[in-house]
Amino acid sequence: MLQQVLEYLNNYFAEDDAGNPYHVERGTFAIPGGLVSLPFLQDGQRFEITGSALNDGVYTYHPGTVTDDDDIAGAALMPETFTGTITALAVPPALRKLSDEIRVWVDKYGDVVNSPYQSEDVIGVYSYVKAQNSKVGGQDPTMGWQTQFGKRLKRWKKGWL
């Protein structure tokens, strides 16, 4: 979910406020057995892989293991050798916490939001209309997470180029 949130924000937190990148490694990387050594990262720091055929995405680094934020339980990298970029990220703790809230919301309301059924009427049998703008516990399950959490995410959003 964190990667989807960062894509929505158009902000991966790869640079400081002055626009200087935190740390970018370009080159050929080997990921034997699904693990990669990244001594320039701190334990628990997020990083992004680009240019890989199998592993593009945002991950969390721990010495001896790597996880993605959708599969916290184990290594998420596929073994490969690729030429690309590994970028250190500095995702704010408040955004990581909000991303977790968004994941819970999507787990609860995702099926409703993604349902193709808006209404159906079978004459003499039943009628169904998907609620529009109905709030359930202060949440609107007819909106996507981007709309539901947009105001809270706004402070981190960067403009599109």
Q: What are the secondary-structure elements, in order, as H or E? A: HEEEEEHEEHH
Total beta strand runs = 7
- How far the N terminus sits from the C terminus, by CA atoms, comes to 23 Å
Query: Mean pLDDT, as a whole number?
Result: 81
- What does the radius of gyration come to? 20 Å
Total domains, how many? Answer: 2
Strand order of the largest sheet: 1-5-2-3-4
Low-confidence stretches: 133-137
Subunit arrangement of the protein: single chain
Q: Tell me about the biggest sheet?
A: 5 strands, antiparallel
Strand content: 15-25%
Structural class: alpha+beta
What shape does the CA trace take?
globular
Helix content: 10-25%
Q: With helices defined by DSSP (H or I, 4 residues minimum), what is the helix count?
A: 4
Concise structural overview:
The chain has 161 residues and is α+β, with helices and mostly antiparallel strands. The protein has 2 domains: 2-88, no CATH class; 93-155, no CATH class. The chain contains 4 helices and 7 strands; from the N terminus they run αβββββαββαα.
